[in-house]
Amino acid sequence: MSKSHGSMAELITSFCRFVRTEGLSAGIKETVDALEVARLIGIDDRELLKTGLRAVLCSSKEEWDRFEELFWLFWREVDRSAKRQPAVHTEQTQEQSKGSAVSLIGTGGSGQEKEEGGRLVLGGSKTDRLKKADFSQVSQDDQADLEKIAAQLLKRMSLRVSRRLKIMTAGKQIDLRRTIRRNIHHGGDLMDLSFKGRKLQQSRMVIVLDISGSMNPYSLFLLRFAYALQKHFKKVNTFLFSTRLSDITTLLRTRDLRQTLRALSHESAGWSGGTQIGESLHEFNQLHARRLLTRDTIFIILSDGWDTGEPEALAAELGAIKARVRKLIWLNPLLGMQEYQPVTRGMSAALPHIDVFAPAHNLESLLELERHLER
Amino acid sequence: MTPPTLAKGKQITDVQDVVRGFEHLGYITDPALATVIFLGVKLGKPVLLEGHAGLGKTEVGKVLASFLGTRLIRLQCYEGLDVNSAVYEWNYQKQLLAIKIEEATSQSIEEKEKHIFSREFLMERPLLQAIQAEEISPVLLVDEVDRADEAFEAFLLELLSDFQISIPELGTIRARHIPFVILTSNRSRELSDALKRRCLYHWIEYPSLEKELQIVTARLPGIEEELGRQVVSFVQAARKLHLSKAPGVAETLDWAQALMSLGRHTLDANSAEATLGCLSKSVEDAAKIKAAGLEALISEAR
Q1: Fewest Cβ atoms closer than 10 Å to its Cβ: which of A65, A282, B58, B127?
Q2: Residue ranges with strand state E in chain A
């Protein structure tokens, strides 16, 4: 009796270890919960077991979708090795199934790079080089490293931004409870007032990215920037445009950023024709401005300013946006080039409405944006 | 930790009990959802239901309370929800009046303070109510927890671990019967990992055609078969149209009811256009549906 009990515990624990290497968060606590569930509903009905374990080991829709595959991968192997040895030699069967289950763990993960304690360790000079490398010119080999550095640095930046926002507690509101307490001996007259800090207000952010032809690699990188900031801004809405506008805010709430970026770059490759900045901003103003642009919104647009539409139209739309937001930031990767002057009609028409005109051609310039994000 | 207390005589032995019990109350579950509810009840773990609007997440809490024969305590979350609205608040006006009234009495300051900060002046909000059940565990429904902020989530997490609340003036109040907890989220923002891992997670997806038809028939017993089928097929097709807000099951039921009250037995383009507001909640969505062709969507449904 205890033997079968023991093997069930071993199987469940191995399974939890397996899914952990596949990226699901299945620590000790989750393993204990999984054992509780298995004890309650048994492991014989695989379909039922899958539902039960899924509820414990997953905590998002993305993990939920992956779980199906992982579950059957593990448990079919268990069933297969159980069949190999007939039930007479039960001890050996358990060893077999444990063995094959354990071997699956080795196949988990896709690490090609050497990872120390789960964090990528690159040489200092390589990091610097990659920070300065123009996004459109990063080699295939460097792409993966650049992504990892970007993720680390952007995360740190967004933490700094949020911490800074938390410290600002100017303004006072009366704390009734403490005030009453302090004034009992005054017989109820509120002589001494107690105050409490003001509730934190977080900014909203709207990011509009030009994804036509040459802008593509820059935009895809700025998406990482948007993704990193989602956590610490009240709301980040992201749009893509070339000839038309596309709202990708919900898409960007994914756990698997890399896959989403790949999908987006595939999709945008199909967009052809000249960029219509003015048109797209017009569409934005018609459909989304009322809902999204508030006094505390920071509006960021990334584009090289090559517009096939009328510069007056672009200026008008931009003016309408500027009137409603706190800050309008225009990022132009061409600014990264030393010889660049904003002489195109589109860009020069836009300039008067822009608060911050900055480059965004490499990781370094993106990180510089940090100081424009505070109050 | 001791599991929650069921009502006397209430027995739940397997997942089928949950399926049947819920169906009896007009809520159609599927094996996965029923399993999660079963586990939540038996193991005393909170259940997190995530999914788009209008798919019956809140309903689960209400139906669960009826199924278990216990009280439902509901906390509707919103941005800025704080301890005062969620847990407890002191009745300041009453306290000030009491102080004034007692001004003349000979009690000491300490005695007056003790009286002012006693249960008499405490206004209990949902979370505090949830842990003070006398006989059996209630169902605590924390609705749209994604609308509250991180500070509130941290507090909720602590509550779900210890099921006790500390009120500085009164001491610590511990739950005698820990509640059954259902959390719902529309996924408008990511919940903290710690909170999600504390719960049993379930994602509620849009139902299949058969399931949605089952739901419509269960909730609107008087509906004609033809109309029901057409309505459900239309909505299933509309969901594929990339609307900014896809219609949920709640919208399907509203629409079916609207058509029934107009005396319709089948679906036609005119009625559909007149009642389109039940399905699409914005000008752009209505335009998209019309652009796809009402006639086309209806004939697909035949």
Answers
A1: A65
A2: 115-116, 119-120, 172-174, 195-197, 204-210, 235-241, 245-247, 297-302, 327-331, 356-358
Tell me if chain A has a CB within 8 Å of the CB of B202. yes
Q: What's the pTM?
A: 0.66
Distance from C-alpha of A233 to C-alpha of A220, rounded to nearest angstrom: 20
Name the residue among B15, B36, B116 with its Cβ closest to that of A55: B36
Strands A235-241 and A204-210: parallel
**Counting beta carbons within 10 angstroms of the beta carbon of residue A364, is it exposed (0 to 12), middle (13 to 18) or buried (19 or more)?**
middle
pLDDT tens-digit series, residues B14-24: 899 999 999 99
Q: What is the pLDDT of residues B178-223, one digit of tens each?
A: 999 999 999 877 788 889 889 999 999 999 999 999 999 998 988 8
Interface of A with B in 143-182 (CB under 8 A): 176-177, 180-181
* pLDDT over 70 (residue B147): yes
Residues in chain A: 375
Chain A hits for B95, Cβ within 8 Å? 180
pLDDT score at B25: 92
Q: What distance in Å separates the CA atoms of residue A30 and residue A36, rounded to the nearest whole number?
A: 10
Contact (Cβ atoms closer than 8 angstroms) between residue B160 and residue B181: yes
CA distance B182 to B142: 6
B200 touches chain A (CB under 8 A): yes
